[in-house]
Specification:
Strand order of the largest sheet: 1-2-3-4-24-23-25-21-22
Largest sheet: 9 strands, antiparallel
Mean pLDDT: 88
Helix content: under 10%
Number of strands: 65
Distance between the termini: 22 Å
Strand content: over 45%
Low-confidence stretches: 1-18, 748-757
Structural class: mainly beta
């Protein structure tokens, strides 16, 4: 059997054929870039997957492109579990925030850096999942930043994005009837003369300002007045609730706030009394410009500014190291958002430095870009397609502190209102067969189905042809053109195709096959395309010849055995040729006994040997394999018959006869060996005192469809599990016969093989024959003349397995018969 000439790990990443390759220069290295996936996934949003191949490494990149002008799309930040303590996967955040008919979080990435361990100041409350720096989600400030190295991505309610060149200034004010005081931060540690505002999202819903860690601090609670809400850049009127307290780790009321301070800020707090009205104002300043952002995430460093890759090598210790990375950015006109993940730490994708990440964002269309949390946190999620990248934490999503999401605000619609091709190939090799994936979208552009099948393809003249089922395109033409898909409802989509004439490689899937003069085998032909992928080629595209046309020939790409013997067939195309060795083995009987009567036909092992005494084994064609033994000990567990007995040709059934005599059995299994592996089949347990017959039906025992890679089949073992309890008893067991059955051959058949084609208008779905009309009676015979299925007053009948059958249809006293192949 041939091994693919491609890297299997790389193939696993490819979901279709590719766009024409381009070249990107990522920092100082040139990469060939192949698009392995591209499709719309939501309103104004596409997802693209890339494979970058460099001189000594590869990178896998996944990104979202969002049209911010689309009226049905929004960008929102989520803080895990809507709290400052607790982490969630990106998937969990999206699913927990989606509201049917209002907002679907259909795509997103992980956000900023967060605490992966630790306790709050009280020494007992976990802070795992708490963002290290600022997070704002739907207008709610979860935390502000205290570090000058922070850079922030924010977006306003009308979807205008901003990216700071310095740490955002969150300084606000609180004003009473008599004075004002500066608010230095939200949900951060208190400091001398600093006034800090705490929300009910704090770990433990307390300020974490304890008398031990923060002595001499004063605190007091605030509640927004009716109809008021604290959001960035908008004054909020509140009332003081209760009296001030000192160093109490005060509980934050639901929907309310606590201010805490020491020194002059403590004096301000002491000036407030229960019921006093105050006004809280928390603006955000991006590089000196006050910006009312509703959603904000923090990262470091800023990697792309004004379309230029920034020198970020010294901004963080890991900037010069290769890691998985996540980035967010936007286009020069601020109308397009880009969210990107590059995998790393795997044999398929090395990872990137921050300067390399900047180049990836630049090529993806960003003008400004920010590095977010990476490593095992890097995740790009979509609701319909799942997580698109391969997280470096063994492929499992890490629970993170926050995320940024693309949200559909369109009304709920479950009906397809349009279709589109996923991953248009653009370039196909001469002879390549392409079956597209067709996606279904609702009226607002949201992906709602990845399995649209009720379409029919057409193509421009001269570039190729469409297969008879209307689902695949064969590139047997030349030049450029388009293929089109159309559904019965009239929805259409199209893609451009270019045909590449030169063939890089051509080969058969298998080196050799078995044929029985009845099964027609479409030869499996493959080629290596531009990206090094293995793709199938329609076998009728090749020219064929045989070394012995009396034994086997290939017609229109289909192999047909003619007589027992050996032949080589050769397939050629565009100067390339491969060879297939064909062994034709035509059965001469309907049923063949594998037992040749020899003493060493199968080797018998009694396990354990101490459990058996006085063992005897004889073999003959007439009586079969006869076993005799004295049951000496409960350690007598199994009897194994081993051998390497080939099953001639392409059998339909392996039939095993077992007569256990008075020996009680608990199991019976058969182990088969094929070129593709070993298969153990559990069989029904034979009853005591009589001969039982167990059938192993092919190809069911090896797979759902006939696969020539599974032939020839070899019988390796029969294992008999014993369940006896009478010590000292002598038992006699017999394997009367082990037979192979060939459904299409019967030396006693009464002319049923010569049934003429009656022109029945039937179709086949799996193993069910559909007539398209109701008949009085439908009979299904094997070619040995045996009735295997019967249906009355029906339009269909099902075959018991793969093989050649005769279907007889009776209606109004008239009958017609026709042969039919069931192939899977």
């Amino acid at each position: 059997m041939k091994i693919s000439k491609c890297l299997f790990l790389l193939l696993a990443l490819v979901t279709g054929n590719a766009f024409a390759s381009v070249t990107w220069k990522v920092w100082n290295t040139e990469y060939r870039v192949d698009t392995t996936f591209h499709a719309q996934i939501g309103p104004g949003t596409t997802q693209t997957s890339l494979l970058l191949t460099g001189p000594d490494t590869t990178l896998t990149v996944f990104y979202l492109t969002v049209d911010l002008t689309n009226p049905y799309v929004d960008i929102r930040t989520v803080c895990a579990k809507d709290h400052l303590a607790g982490a969630q996967t990106v998937t969990d955040m999206a699913e927990s925030h989606s509201v049917e008919g209002e907002s679907l979080y259909f795509a997103g990435i992980n956000g900023g850096f967060f605490a992966m361990s630790g306790k709050a100041n009280d020494g007992k409350t976990s802070i795992v999942g708490r963002p290290h720096h600022a997070t704002v989600a739907e207008g709610e400030i979860f935390r502000t930043s205290t570090s000058s190295i922070c850079r922030h991505f924010g977006i306003t309610a009308d979807k205008v994005p901003y990216l700071s060149n310095a740490s955002v200034d969150f300084t606000g004010t609180i004003t009473s009837a008599t004075q004002s005081y500066e608010i230095s931060g939200v949900n951060v540690d208190a400091a001398n003369n600093k006034l800090i505002l705490y929300t009910d999202k704090m770990p433990g819903q307390v300020t974490q300002v304890t008398s031990n860690s923060f002595p001499l601090y004063y605190e007091i609670a605030l509640l927004p007045k009716s109809g008021e809400k604290l959001v960035p850049g908008k004054p909020c009127k509140m009332r003081v609730s209760g009296s001030w307290a000192r160093g109490t780790n005060m509980a934050v009321p639901d929907g309310g706030y606590v201010i805490s301070g020491k020194g002059m800020s403590g004096v301000f707090i002491q000036s407030l009394n229960d019921g006093d009205e105050v006004e809280v104002y928390l603006p955000m300043s991006f590089d000196g410009e006050e910006v009312p952002v509703d959603n904000l995430v923090t990262g470091n460093p800023k990697i792309l500014g004004n379309g230029t890759v920034l020198d970020t090598e010294d901004e963080r210790k890991d900037a010069v190291e290769w890691h998985p990375r996540t980035s967010i950015g936007y286009s020069r006109d601020k109308k397009t958002l880009i969210m990107l993940v590059c995998d790393g730490r795997t044999s398929v994708s090395r990872g990137v430095r921050t300067r390399e990440l900047a180049d990836l964002m630049r090529y993806a269309g960003a003008y400004e870009a920010l590095n977010l949390d990476g490593g095992g946190s890097s995740t790009l999620y979509t609701s319909m397609l799942g997580v698109r990248n391969h997280p470096s934490s063994n492929g499992v999503q890490r629970q993170v502190g926050d995320g940024v999401f693309v949200v559909s605000t369109a009304p709920r619609s479950v009906y397809i209102g349009g279709i589109g091709f996923a991953t248009p190939p653009h370039v196909l090799a001469k002879g390549e067969e392409y079956t597209p994936e067709v996606y279904g979208y609702n009226a607002y552009g949201l992906l709602i189905s990845t399995e649209v099948t009720n379409y029919t393809l057409t193509c421009d003249e001269g570039i190729g042809h469409i297969t008879s089922d209307g689902k695949s395109f064969v590139a047997d033409g030349s030049g450029k053109g388009k293929i089109y898909a159309r559904t019965p409802a009239g929805y259409t989509c199209e893609m451009e195709i270019s045909i590449r004439e030169n063939i890089e490689d051509l080969y058969f899937r298998l080196d050799s096959v078995i044929n029985d003069c009845h099964y027609r085998y479409p030869v499996e032909v493959f080629m290596t395309n531009l990206k090094g992928e293995e793709v199938s080629i329609a076998p009728q595209m090749l020219s064929w010849r045989s070394s012995d046309e009396q034994v086997a020939v290939v017609e229109e790409g289909v192999l047909r055995g003619l007589a027992s013997g050996v032949a080589e067939v050769y397939g050629s195309m565009s100067g390339f040729t491969d060879t297939l060795l064909v062994k034709v083995q035509e059965p001469v009987r309907h049923c063949m006994n594998l037992n040749d009567g020899s003493a060493d036909w199968m080797r018998v092992s009694f396990v354990t040997s101490a459990g058996f005494k006085n063992t005897s084994v004889t073999n003959s064609v007439d009586k079969g394999l006869e076993l005799s033994f004295l049951y000496n000990s409960p350690s007598a567990k199994t009897i194994t018959l081993s051998g390497n007995i080939p099953l001639y040709s392409l059998p339909d059934t392996l039939r095993i006869h077992v007569n256990p005599g008075e020996a009680r059995m608990k199991s019976l299994s058969c182990t088969l060996r094929t070129p593709s592996g070993t298969h153990t089949v559990d069989l029904p347990v034979p009853a005591v005192g009589r001969e039982s017959v167990a059938d192993i039906v092919f190809p069911d025992a090896l797979g759902e469809t006939i696969d020539m890679a599974n032939y020839p089949i070899t019988l390796s073992y029969l294992t008999l599990g014993l369940d006896m309890n009478t010590l000292g008893e002598t038992y006699h067991m017999t394997i009367p016969a082990v037979e192979v059955i060939y459904n299409y051959y019967n030396e006693n058949a009464s002319g049923i093989e010569s049934v003429a084609n009656a022109g029945l208008a039937w179709t086949v779905e799996g193993r069910t024959v559909l007539l398209g009309r109701t008949a009085d009676r439908i009979e299904l015979y094997n070619v040995g003349g045996g009735l295997v299925a019967l249906a009355r007053e029906s339009d269909r009948i099902s075959a018991p397995g793969v093989g050649l059958y005769v279907v007889r249809v009776v209606s109004d006293g008239q009958s017609v018969s026709q042969k039919i192949w069931i192939t899977k």
